[in-house]
């Protein structure tokens, strides 16, 4: 099957540097962070404003792509489960999905709350959360 | 910046074949579809069961990766907006995100409801929707 080239559009800047310290989910103690976008994609940020929530897509570049099953949350008392039924970072295409609240937009830098991604994590995409159909 | 190779893990099988006919969102008339996974990743499906909702990640292989701003929903009366503030398929890394309801799992094939992706669209990843923290 064909493969496709992901080209990161920026990087996460965060105080989180070690996978062992990273919270498993954003509401489990994740810090504020900066999303630093390449100058070339800055026009794609037009319309992002403080106060909105967005979906952030990252590439979990420290994940193991050969893992197909895990004990959920690393808990060996729980049965091994296929990675498509878990949020484990290890999976064939380790795309990270994070809902973050936009605190500020300064040029090509976006300040966000509650991001569990590690410092240096490549950014792939950002999408707004969808409101009900009449507001789209 | 480094690029990363996405390796699709399957394909969408759908009656939708033309981008012009595809609904913009799943609750705008999207049909049922099959997710057909490669045999090699079948163990990753273990734990997916009928009745649950999952997040499906696809690669929108017919999207234009050089587009950075669009008129939302193709409506020229709306101001041009950066693609990171819209759900337009055209964007630097055209990752599709779809919430789908699992109707059936038959080996490496998963039957789902309300999928607006076109027939043949490459599948990248599947993740469960997260419940509240105590249920994780």
Write a structural description:
The structure is a homodimer of 136-residue chains. The first copy, chain A, has no helices and nine strands. The model of chain A has no long low-confidence stretch (mean pLDDT 90). In chain A, the strands form two sheets. Chain A has a six-stranded antiparallel beta barrel with strand order 2-3-8-7-4-9. In chain A, strands 5-6 form a two-stranded antiparallel sheet. Chain A is globular, with a radius of gyration of 16 Å. Chain A has a single domain (10-129), classed as Elongation Factor Tu (Ef-tu), domain 3 (Beta Barrel), CATH 2.40.30.70. The N and C termini of chain A lie far apart (35 Å). Chain A has 136 residues and is mostly beta strands. Chains A and B meet through β1, β4, β6 and β9 of A and β1, β4, β6 and β9 of B. β1 of chain A pairs antiparallel with β1 (4-6) of chain B, so a sheet runs across the interface.
Would you state the CATH class of chain A? Mainly Beta
CATH homology superfamily of chain A = YaeB-like
Fraction in beta strands of chain A: 25-35%
Oligomer description: homodimer
Architecture per CATH nomenclature, i.e. the level-2 architecture of chain A: Beta Barrel
**Share in helix of chain A:** under 10%
Largest sheet of chain A: 6 strands, antiparallel, barrel
Q: What is the succession of H and E elements of chain A?
A: EEEEEEEEE
Specify the number of helices of chain A: 0
Supply the number of structural domains of chain A: 1
Rg of chain A, alpha carbons? 16 Å
